[in-house]
Amino acid sequence: MSKSIQFKGYALVDPSNWSDLQVREFKPKNFEPEDVEIAITHCGVCGSDLHTVTQGWGESKLPLVVGHEIVGTVTRVGDKVSEFKPGDRVGVGAQIGSCLSCKRCKMDYENYCQESIETYNGEYPDGVVTQGGYSTAIRAHERFVFPIPDKIESRDAASMLCAGLTVFSPLKTYGAGPGKTVGIMGIGGLGHYAVLFAKALGAEVYAFTHDATKVNDIKKMGADHVINTSENKDFHKDLSGQLDIIISTRDTYSPQTPLGDYLSMLFVHGKFISVGIPNADNPLPQIHPFDLMPNGALIGGSHIGSKKECLEMLRVAAEKGVKPWIEELPMKEAGTALRNLHDNKVRYRYVLSQDLA
């Protein structure tokens, strides 16, 4: 018989004081035959968490527990679960549900399902609000639960399940590998993972940062070339037409961001893929069709990743020894982590360890 778990977490209760998270109990989803119940040991701190608690993406359903980079131990499985058993070490990412029956879901594009349910601040059909991983436990359909390879530490695996997957998916989709050149725009939590995984896949990596204090770090991550765009305003000229893919991890833009300069660095039919999501009032900088036509440049986006992609990412990470730059904090310091993320003080990802259970 499984041990009973009390569902509680560090919750946002007052958006005007968003870093002051309070311990609150919450109602989990009804346990169904395809569900897995997980006692959480670690949860990463994502930029999505910050955008949510600050209401940058709209109003939150309060009280709300954020966190969608979750690792823990299976405590209970439904009668129809075939992939997991109690005691397994598993993870959950930014998506916790979909219809599972549409064309997208059947083709392993469940992350693009039009009935997708987010791991927190979402809502199940019965009205239960989804609560995230700054908490003791979570329930999820087995489709959205990932086995963690033995070679990957729990704290490292946690931050891979959103940040890592978000960049791994477009890198794989658009062919990053030997003989390809990849540009990474913005080297924060997502960007550092983009460098690590692009190198693990065998690509030549150009990292673009405006922060001189990060240059040495980025070299240690394995980037082949590091360009400080604050010091070299003409950085794009030497790289005109040379990059196959640019992954933009930026979640803030100004109207003066030289997006056209980045597009000019793409090879014929090169792809500029945005994975960072700014606040709702912060669109991409304006461009002109002339910025796209000389090289047939394509602009696109990417949304987290599928389970199929996540399993491949974890396999690559285990085989290639991908090691993220992590700072671990007790979960009670989640508010401090969010505040430091807001102030750009994290290098390069926070992971919270359980202290409520």
Automatic annotation (TrEMBL):
Domain (Enoyl reductase (ER)): residue spans on this chain: 16-352
Molecular function per GO: oxidoreductase activity, acting on the CH-OH group of donors, NAD or NADP as acceptor; zinc ion binding
CDD domains the record matches: CAD1 (cd05283)
InterPro entries listed in its UniProt record: ADH-like_C, ADH-like_N, ADH_Zn_CS, CAD-like, D-isomer_DH_CS1, ER, GroES-like_sf, NAD(P)-bd_dom_sf
Cofactor(s) recorded in Swiss-Prot or TrEMBL: Zn(2+)
Keyword entries, A-Z: Metal-binding, Oxidoreductase, Zinc
Pfam families referenced in this protein's UniProt entry, alphabetically: ADH_N (PF08240), ADH_zinc_N (PF00107)
Family per similarity comment: Belongs to the zinc-containing alcohol dehydrogenase family.
Protein name stated in the entry: GroES-like protein
Organism: Trametes coccinea (strain BRFM310)
